[in-house]
Prior knowledge:
It is built from 9 helices and 5 strands; from the N terminus they run E-H-E-H-H-H-E-H-H-E-H-H-E-H. By secondary structure, it is α/β, with parallel strands linked by helices. Strands 2-3-1-4-5 form a 5-stranded parallel β-sheet, with helices on both faces.
Amino acid sequence: RRPAFMMGRGALIVFEGLDRSGKSTQAQLLARALTEGGKDVLAPSPVQRPPSDDAAGVEYVWRFPDRSTHIGQTLNTYLSSKDAEPLHPRVQHLLFSANRWERAEAIRAALVAGRSVILDRYTYSGIVYSCSLGLELDWCMPPDAGLPRPDVVCFLSVSPEVAARRGEFGLERYENTEMQRRVRDNFERLFAHTAVSDHNIHNFDADREMQAVHRDIVELVQRVIANVADSPSTSV
Ligand code: DGP
Ligand code: NA
Ligand code: NA
């Protein structure tokens, strides 16, 4: 590895998609591929841990919601328990956004240190799930304004048929066909919005087998990492 002062910044790589689109699997496969290829990454793994100086070659979870923080635990209780205290959609939205802000500085610090960061869900899920609960797109976007802007967004597109074959929905809130259909429509709406359409969003046909999807993602991300090295990190 080159010493940090000789390296350009890292890339912010975001995975988005419906529940059961394979985001977590692809994020982990990518992290492993980049790490083995000598790239310095902060990335998803089954265990959620904060970043540290010895992160090189080690896989980390950067999954939103990050359920390990105080706010994350509130969200976890709400998502996983049917008889949790009700949370108004606007309150939920601000908590999910705050949960991303809790990690903003650490993400930026990693990028500046030349380490790429892989995120399993980010602002796009945040906006889209909240819109699917009936909130207005233009109300949902401002709380995330100023968060580190992704260098690439990998959207894993899965058909309802294939998603259904991947097993029953879990027991969590929002894992039902009706909600997922709204979420899919709202991802389309958001990606067409002028504030977002120039983000580097790529669709991957995630109906294909895991390794085929993975190969396409690695090819794209390696180009992105090479290109961002000399450019400053910006904000959403
Ligand atoms: P996951 O841990 O990836 O299974 O995500 C948990 C659930 O929370 C999933 O159904 C998507 C939803 N979600 C993720 N981020 C947000 C957000 O910012 N706002 C809302 N309302 N829902 C979110
Ligand atoms: Na889920
Ligand atoms: Na996931």
